[in-house]
Design goal:
single chain; about 450 residues; disordered N terminus; elongated; 3 strands; mainly alpha; 17 helices
């Protein structure tokens, strides 16, 4: 192969020289009718115009090694490479140390955003324990408390609010991330609580499944219609309205008038309290089994709990599950704070079986909602924060069902009412007035 190359190169050079020699006589010859000038002694006669020397092709300089490209600016990187939704929002946000700007020199915090809030890992575990305990104790308020932690305790709402004018896309993305993060915490607590209450005979399986089935469609539609369209102020305001409204419903249930229509639930609650809290009554083998389904039907399902009989029409929990999970998906909570009043007021169940039944409905709803938020709508979350909080959730969810047997039903409701009123007022004013009138919100 090398000989072939040399041979070809030789032919090219020979052809070039032959052409040059063929043209040279025409340049050196005298014009017709002219005598050539006399030759000088020392110098030969110079031609009219010396022929130009054959041009030789200078070898090309070796290409200089390419200089390393300067690091692309975030805006250029966004155009040249496929970035995630979060990376693109960060790249487009204004840079600097002011409010509503990304300070690239600051340490990374929530979702690896420079300058975002960051806290010691133990606080995440402790807050997760509180969320898991309260949800597994009353079957509700876990998502609300998870939201309080992310919105206020860990400062994510205030951080997202700074980008309302400077980077609306980042503001709304952080809002969606808060909604999804809340549901992760409630989902694990609901999983543990559902299994624990089922083993204790304090879960109404057909009722929980009807609620869950009704919520599946809402869990798909709401993320589809709202992701990327709700800023953090509007989110916090809606959060407060719903919680505040539920507080009034539960407060009404603790009044004498609200208790008149719940005789069966009161009888079952009293029998359970006598057996497990006051320990004054004897527990029969039948009662010790807890919830016993006695009839399955398309229009009526019946069950007993500690001697009291209950029944419901499946159509109502199906409709209730659709509405409740729709609201839950909107504000990013489990929905237990709505399932509980639905089960106690509409279905007339005692609190001791409401928590487990609510947990089952919440579990299915959270699976559907998280899938649609993260897979269908590609909402980013901070998994390091979530997994740290889930450690506490696991601890609290185991403690809740055990400790709830030692607390009378009325005190569980009153605790729920106090928390709901405080959170509702705080977020209602913060979302729509710009500042909470209550501390810690």
């Amino acid at each position: 192969m090398r000989r072939h190359h040399l041979f070809i190169c030789g032919l090219v050079v020979a052809a070039f020289l032959a052409t040059s020699l063929a043209l040279a006589p025409q340049n050196w010859a005298a014009k017709p009718g002219e005598t050539p000038p006399a030759a000088e002694t020392a110098k030969p006669a110079s031609p009219e115009k010396p022929a130009e020397a054959p041009k030789t092709v200078a070898p090309e300089k070796p290409a200089e090694p390419a200089k390393p490209a300067a690091p692309a600016k975030p805006e250029e990187a966004a155009a040249g490479a496929k970035l995630s939704k979060l990376e693109e929002a960060i790249a487009k946000a204004p840079k600097g140390a002011g409010k509503g700007q990304i300070n690239e020199a600051a340490p990374k915090g929530f979702m690896a955003i420079p300058g975002a809030p960051s806290h010691f890992w133990l606080w995440y575990i402790l807050w997760g324990t509180w969320v898991g305990w309260i949800f597994s104790s009353v079957g509700a308020f876990g998502g609300i408390m998870a939201g309080v932690g992310h919105i206020s305790v860990f400062g994510l709402s205030d951080f997202a609010g700074t980008f309302k004018q400077t980077s609306p896309a980042l503001n709304k993305m952080l809002t969606d991330s808060i909604r999804t993060s809340n549901q992760y915490l409630v989902g694990l607590s609901a999983l543990i609580s559902s299994f624990t209450y089922w083993r204790m005979g304090r879960l109404v399986l057909p009722l929980g499944l009807c609620l869950a089935a009704g919520g599946i469609l809402a869990g798909y539609l709401v993320p589809l219609l709202t992701v990327g369209k709700m800023d953090v102020s509007l989110y916090v305001g809606f959060f407060g309205i719903i919680v505040f409204a539920v507080a009034f419903v539960l407060f009404y249930e603790t009044t004498p008038k609200g208790q008149e229509s719940k005789k069966a639930a009161k009888a079952a609650a009293k029998a359970f309290e006598d057996a497990h809290i006051r320990k004054t009554g004897e527990v029969s083998a039948e009662h010790a089994k807890g919830v016993q389904v006695t009839h399955w039907g398309a229009s009526k399902i019946s069950f007993t709990f500690y001697g009291a009989e209950f029944s419901f029409n499946p159509i109502w929990p199906l409709l209730g599950g659709f509405v409740i999970n729709g609201i839950s998906a909107l504000i990013g909570v489990g929905g237990g704070f709505l399932y509980v009043p639905f089960l106690t007021s509409v279905a007339g169940l005692p609190m001791f079986i409401v928590a487990g039944t609510s947990a089952l409905a919440v579990l299915v709803g959270m699976i559907v909602n998280i899938f649609n938020m993260m897979v269908v709508r590609a909402v980013p979350v901070d998994f390091l924060l979530i997994f740290t909080e889930l450690i506490g959730i696991a601890i609290g969810s185991v403690l809740g069902p055990v400790t709830s047997k030692k607390i009378p039903e009325v005190w569980l409701k009153r605790l729920f009412v106090v928390l709901a009123v405080y959170v509702g007022i705080g977020y209602l004013t913060k979302g729509f007035m710009g500042k909470s009138i209550l501390p810690g919100m």
